[in-house]
């Protein structure tokens, strides 16, 4: 009888030891699982930060693009242009500025070719001033809001910008807007425009896009 009791005690102790081993093993697995969970949580947090950064960058890019693209609903203010000389001898509807007569078309957007045709219909051409700074200053003093204007310059197959008079464009300091003209030839952005986002510095865009435009009539 006593031997039977001892055997039962031995079996019970053995089972208790086995259970203790299982408990320790389970605790280790739980601890390891906790480490894995913490690593996953850390990775998810890092991924969330990356997503947030990219989301902010995308919003910034879209806002930037929204400024550059002409917007039909943009709120704008127009001040009547003032002649820069008392000797105002440009025919209607042109205004004298420097060595040329200019008129700004800000009512209907046209493609570059359509805009040029309109300029020719009033005995002019798309603006091709010798000094683009004067024209940019004129526009900056006249228009506020979101404005983009075609002017008379195109990119040829040799990656050279030329005025409609076939004279190469003189690239002055701060000629281009930020990020412009990029890879205009590869992107088929062969027509030049000025935009208020860059204080009317130059940019390159597809000639098929529609923008306002500036015509010029040379003084003879």
Automatic annotation (TrEMBL):
Keywords: Lectin
GO molecular function terms noted in the UniProt entry: carbohydrate binding
Chain intervals for the UniProt region annotation (Disordered): 65-84
InterPro entries tied to this protein: C-type_lectin-like, C-type_lectin-like/link_sf, C-type_lectin/snaclec_domain, CTDL_fold
Signal peptide interval: none
Keyword Protease tagged: no
Domain C-type lectin: 97-216
Keyword Cell cycle: no
Full protein name: C-type lectin-like protein
Organism, as annotated: Penaeus chinensis
